[in-house]
Amino acid sequence: MNPEINAPKNGNTIILSAICIVFALGIFLLDISTPSGVAGGVPYVILVLTSLWATKKAFTLITAITGTLLNFLGFFMSFDGGMLSIEVSNRILAVFMIWVTTALAGHYKKTNDEHEGLIRDLSHLNKELNEFTYVVSHDLKAPLRAIHNYSDFLQKDLKGTLEEEQEMYLEGLGEAVCQSEAFLEDLLQLSRIGRKKVILKQVDLYPFLNTLIAGLALPKETEVLIEKHWPTISAEPTLLRQIFQNLITNALKYNKALKKRIEFGWSEKGKQALEIFIKDNGIGIEARFFEKIFMPFQRLHADSEYEGTGIGLATVSKAVSKLGWSVCVESVPEQGSTFYLTIPKKR
């Protein structure tokens, strides 16, 4: 075992033991200084409750036994103050409360341990899934690239010698390979987010967005509206680029307007956060799909209508979560969509 890991736990146990001893002595002195008719043993319940902070399960049992013994000792040492039947019933009540609290504390600790175990298992499985996704996506790219190249070679070498139906088969093969390559690339991007270590940097959003938009080479019919005054935020630049790039791509892909429009803006959201919005004039989304669109591989349209892999908004959601932000959407079918990024100021 690593002593550096266990040292803090041992230190906490010693401190907690000292606190419990002080509590026990204090309650005992209070107990023997009051008439025996008063339920002086009941405060020992506090002693049991303090054991919730202990890492060892036996600590709760020890505090319960200690409280019970001191309760009975207090019965004999406190001065006479009432009827014996009342004194005995009060002490029995105190013991009952001590052990009921002990049982509840034990159940809480057991449930909490199971909960932490499930979280550890889930984290481990999630890590394995990310690694599996990355390996599979990476290893499949090479054979797909080879199929793509051979398909191109065949089309060039056999050009003019194939029947129309045969040419259609080769074109279909090429398109299928392109779609698979795009899917694997999106899958790789999604898996990389889970593996990426977040190192926050100060990002001035106005030049960042302008550089990103210029690099995307948007269609000429696209109108981009962006405010000039933007805040500087703490973010991981690569994740930030993935978020905005996927939202912009999505806004253009699902858009039938002759003149496509994307608007960027931001506002204060109380004192604790700021909110960035990306608004488009696309086809919109029905309210019942607002949560579904952020899940991997979820598509609302057939490939014949709109090409895509169903991973873009899932990548946005995962990157946003990695940064400790949140994302949501407001939309009306045929009236466009607005995506909101909520960023805590403390980050």
From TrEMBL:
GO terms for biological process: osmosensory signaling via phosphorelay pathway. It catalyses: ATP + protein L-histidine = ADP + protein N-phospho-L-histidine. It holds the Pfam family HATPase_c. CDD domains: HisKA. The chain crosses the membrane at residues 12-30, 36-54, 61-79. It is an enzyme of class 2 (transferase). Residues 135-347 form the Histidine kinase domain. Keywords: Kinase, Membrane, Phosphoprotein, Transferase, Transmembrane, Transmembrane helix. Its EC number is 2.7.13.3. PROSITE patterns: HIS_KIN. GO terms for molecular function: phosphorelay response regulator activity; phosphorelay sensor kinase activity; protein kinase activator activity. PANTHER family: BACTERIOPHYTOCHROME (PTHR42878:SF15), TWO-COMPONENT HISTIDINE KINASE (PTHR42878). This is histidine kinase. It comes from hydrothermal vent metagenome. The lineage of its organism: unclassified sequences, metagenomes, ecological metagenomes.
